[in-house]
Amino acid sequence: MVGFGNVGKTSLANRLIRNTFDPDSKKTEGIQITQWPIRLHDAEDITLHVWDFGGQEIMHSTHQFFLTERSLYLLVLNGRQGHEDEDAEYWLELIQSFGGDSPVIVVLNKVSEHPFDVNRAALQQKFPNIQKFIPTDCEAEIGIEQLRTTIERETDALEHLRDAFPSSWVTIKNRLSGMENDYISFEKYRDICQHDGETDFGAQNSLAVHLHSLGIALNYKDDPRLRDTHVLNPHWVTNGIYTLLNASELADTKGELAADCLSRTLDSTAYPLERHGFLLELMRKFELCLRFEEDENRFLIPDLLDKQQPPEAADFKLEECLNFRYAYPILPEGLLPRFIVRTHVLSEHHLRWRTGVILHFEGNRALVKADRADRCVTISVDGPIESRRRLLTIIRYDCDRIHSSFKSKPQELVPVPSHPDIILPYQDLLVMEESGLKEFPQVIKGKVVNLSVRDLLNGVDIEGSRQPKSKIDRLHESLRLFYSYSHKDEILRDELETHLKILQRQGLIQTWHDRRLVPGDEWVNEIDSNLNRADIILLLISSDFIASDYCYEIELKRAMERHEKGEARVIPVILRPCDWQNTLFNKLSWLPQDGHHQPVTQWGDRDAAWLNVETGIRKAIASLKSR
User: Fold this and answer.
1) Cα–Cα distance measured from residue 599 to residue 587, given in angstroms and rounded to the nearest whole number
2) Which residue spans within 87-149 are E strands per DSSP?
3) What are phi and psi for residue 501, nearest 5 degrees?
4) What is the pLDDT of residues 363-387, one digit of tens each?
5) Cβ neighbours of residue 250 under 8 Å, at least 6 residues apart?
6) In 451-489, where does DSSP find H-type helix?
7) Would strands 298-300 and 290-291 be described as parallel, antiparallel, or unpaired?
8) Single pTM value for the model
9) Which residues fall within 8 angstroms of residue 604, CB to CB, at 6 or more apart?
10) How would residue 53 be classed by pLDDT, with cut points 50, 70 and 90?
11) If DSSP states are collapsed to H, E and C, what string results for 513-581?
């Protein structure tokens, strides 16, 4: 059940499930999950898990992590505000992005209080997964029986409703559902599986994925930071995160979160100290927060940043900048906060705000802003003309990664240099180039000007990123790069990866590290598999890397075996000062190389150090491709 605040979602759930109505019911904070047993027409008993999503805007960016494709959606609207058609489009775009083709019932609620309707034909033409529009009123009991019947009919038609489960899986599911614990360890989950007849580890993992998608038991065993906790009560997660997001302390600090804030904000019985790290790491996994480089116990939640744009944003003269734009059907909530998390190594705290950020990279600055009214994100890069495209390339790479989670893709637009108000579709320029068209006329300030297709595209594309090959072909041709590193060097790895995004956008490499694990992966097997398939293995060297048994005894050992057989190229990258002269890799050519053999952290210009590393990796790629 989705919709803005105060549209009556909770009252609707109570009327459907319990046939009760409370005019004074409180608004939903976060997500309320209720079981609803129903019986279908053929006497089949079904249990629906009703997820009632809170309507506050601060929550919208987190809803996406619970909107799944195997669901039935109720979009609840009311006519009090007078923009119900716009509200419908907003939520239908979100459902389509994260719920795929899941069926949707649009509920026109509180019709006795505020009679209204929406443009049904236009909405259904644009969103064919809409099954029905039903006017309702919980207090007057209008449309409730029709809605209940429609829900039963759509439930009966759900694609995976009757997928067969082994009897042992049903036993395990029922046992987990009946436990009062909010969470258990993943090892405890395996013990329960063993006890109830499922002894195969692979099958246990498959069941865990099913239970996760059904919202019965959330598990993140894919991620080394989270794998120890198997959540039996999804509300425990959502309540913990939403309590933090609504904490008055965070409103005062504009989203700066100290780790000990959890002790002051969360109930210590439900959220003991040893589980605070799990919640924080889960928020990092969902790109809800970032950790400050200078203090690992302080975090920033960009969704709670100040709304005020800093004065530095006014310094950008658009007619003098390299500009790019994304136009969206509906601007997704949380897009800019997620972008801020992904690019945090390029920004400073005072240059971040809720809808924008200023980035710094190799002497360039970029202003990245979201405009909800215009439903767009604008990018303006200022600095040395010869290197502006490198920063734009990084920005576009991160935007593409975020867009990959949306079903509706934005339109890419290219503003004409020196005339940022003249905007051209990027895809149209590509078609022109592929058709051999070199120039085309454009009216600018009352005059016809012939614009160069190639110059416009080369202005926003770095060399090699616009190759006439499919993404699949380029993926097959790119080399696999594996990061072996200590998690204590995660921020340094993030800085390096920022530079390597340029190589990725050029289709030269595809990178992998253990933060790329996805739900359902068996983490040790997945690490081994990616290490064994890698063409280039980067060893990110520090005293913590050398002290890590897993990095040094397992990953390094296997990497050197593959290097000596000529199966992969191993490149040590010296991050921090340490004694590495007597290690297994001391005879390999290392990076960065400037004649002084200084680790990255001892360079006066960190960008120059990473550029040196990037250049060395680029040479290794060229060498491997020429073999």
Assistant:
1) 16
2) 104-108, 130-135
3) -60, -30
4) 999 999 999 889 999 999 999 988 8
5) 244, 256, 257, 261, 301, 304
6) 453-460, 471-477
7) antiparallel
8) 0.80
9) none
10) confident
11) CHHHCCCCCCHHHHHHHHHHHCCEEEEEECHHHHHCHHHHHHHHHHHHHHHHCCCCEEEEEECCCCCCC
